[in-house]
Amino acid sequence: MSVLTKRRSPLVAALAAVLVAVTACASGGGRSGPKPTDPPAETARPGVLRVLAGSELQDLAPILEDARKATGVTVQFAWTGTLDGADTVSAGRADGRYDAVWFPSDQYLRLDPVGKSKVLSETPVMVSPVAIGVRSSTLADLGWGDGSKVTWAQVGDAAAAGRLTYGMADPSRSNSGFSTLVAVASAFSKADAALSEADVLKATPQLKQFFTGQKLTSGSSGWLAQAYTRAESGLVGALVNYESVLLSLNRTLPAQQQLTVVRPLDGVVSADYPLSLLSSAAPDQRDAFQRLTSYLLKEEVQKRISEVTLRRPATAGVAPAAGLSTDRRPELPFPGTRAVADGLLASYQNELRRPSRTVYVLDTSGSMEGSRIAALKNALGRLTGADDTRGVRRFRDREEVTLLSFASSVKWARTHVVPPSGGQPGPQAELAAIDADVQSLSATGGTALYDSLEEAYRVIERQQAAAKDDRFTSIVLMTDGESNAGASDADFKRFHDALPAWEKAVPVFPIKFGEAAVNQLQGVADLSGGKLFDGSGSLDGAFEEIRGYQ
């Protein structure tokens, strides 16, 4: 009897749904053509390699400038997340648009036969394992010595007991988060081969305990590091990220926030940063790829890469930079199929992690009339489940979603809680109700931005007082103009300064749209510890990107 027959848990439901989606994509279903966030295609030029890559590679700028001088090859980057990038390649949206991809890892891409077939060759350039950066004071409190003998089980036990809190990037957006999710699933299940559905089910109880300790989430490693350093995040005792990111962060942290890098004794999942040539690349670009990879693998270049990035050399025999230990941890098994990987992601979003509480503060003033209000409805409507093959971008199971429509004043605020999958009535009816509220939005009136933000904080305060629960809490603000009614920015600052510490720590993620006043939005983001997003090119893309921070 299969596991599916024995136990129909939310994870199994997710795996089953993902298997259907993957099969549909393999048979030609799903989306085609560029996504709204894809840049315009550029014609291939001699000596230029168009590379779709993870944004963490920005630290290679000095290396690639030297490479340009030595080889005549210019690397032209377009940034994306690893999983989104893999989808781009598998769907054919990279064909003719990019010559190569350069993600932290190609393992997820290789799970899809179509995606795998589009990669002609790959060259690992550097290596960094997922690790845990623990505050020195926290390390001492846990009795972990210098951290060299710690296992994933010990980390999980400390999180479950409330003795360790940490920040981690969203696995659906960041490869470091995804690698962490795979590492703990493999370690807790004691898998000795490719991670299977049965292994994930076996690990689920420990995974739930492990993720009770996650108090910070982020769509990017950069913002996660910023959140860690803020005073209101002082109770977070650790960050889970690549070893190189943690060591680089130590270069800027004050003494009391320095991190001891712990690589669990029972194994890690490493990024080997393969520069991968796409089969659609033209002959000139194939030649440029060969010249560039040959240069990057030279011993002296590998040494400099390690010194600049604090990643380990990929070329055998080259010593790592000072501060990087020479011993290696065993590599933990990766999922054996795309369905298992996507099911694990869906389980994290809908079952394993702490649920979210989000208030969407939506400008429905007169300037939003016409195409703008239509774009807003479309962008939010997509979050109710449309066009989401992995089931990880929609509003999550257990998520509390409040839509607050405002113009000259708050028009209305409506709250929905998405039920868990696998039960009755399930999430679909509530997702449809959210979409109905979204489609009812209408544009009239002025723009009382700060009054509406203040009301959003009051909504959160009432919700927290009633539920007394533990959630990732945030506010998303979308506007196309400048606040011209009600409270001023100074009024809002006084309001925010008077909030209790827990509420003051709730970040606001503003979305710039149309003629929005960037200085006002950036001020709100800076004051609240949030981040400004640009929806001018794609409102869909901005709302989806913010999902990694909620």
Task: Summarize the helices and strands and which ones pair or pack.
Layout: H1 3-6, H2 10-26, E1 48-53, H3 61-71, E2 74-79, H4 82-90, E3 100-102, H5 107-110, H6 113-117, E4 119-124, E5 126-135, H7 136-142, H8 152-160, E6 166-169, H9 175-189, H10 197-211, E7 214-218, H11 221-229, E8 238-242, H12 243-250, E9 259-262, E10 270-271, E11 274-278, H13 283-296, H14 299-309, E12 312-313, H15 338-352, E13 356-363, H16 371-382, E14 400-406, E15 410-417, H17 428-439, H18 449-467, E16 472-479, H19 489-497, H20 501-504, E17 508-512, H21 518-528, E18 533-534, H22 539-546
Parallel strand pairs: 1-2, 1-3, 6-7, 6-8, 13-14, 13-16, 16-17, 17-18
Antiparallel strand pairs: 3-11, 4-11, 5-8, 5-9, 5-10, 5-12, 14-15
Helix pairs in contact: 2-15, 3-13, 8-10, 9-10, 10-15, 16-17, 16-22, 18-19
Protein model, in words:
The protein is of the alpha/beta class and 550 residues long. The chain has helices at residues 3-6, 10-26, 61-71, 82-90, 107-110, 113-117, 136-142, 152-160, 175-189, 197-211, 221-229, 243-250, 283-296, 299-309, 338-352, 371-382, 428-439, 449-467, 489-497, 501-504, 518-528, 539-546, and strands at 48-53, 74-79, 100-102, 119-124, 126-135, 166-169, 214-218, 238-242, 259-262, 270-271, 274-278, 312-313, 356-363, 400-406, 410-417, 472-479, 508-512, 533-534. Strands 5, 6, 7, 8, 9, 10 and 12 form a 7-stranded mixed β-sheet that branches. Strands 15-14-13-16-17-18 form a 6-stranded mixed β-sheet, with helices on both faces. Strand 1, helix 3 (61-71) and strand 2 form a beta-alpha-beta unit. Helix 2 packs across helix 15 (338-352), helix 9 crosses helix 10 and helix 16 packs parallel to helix 22 (539-546).
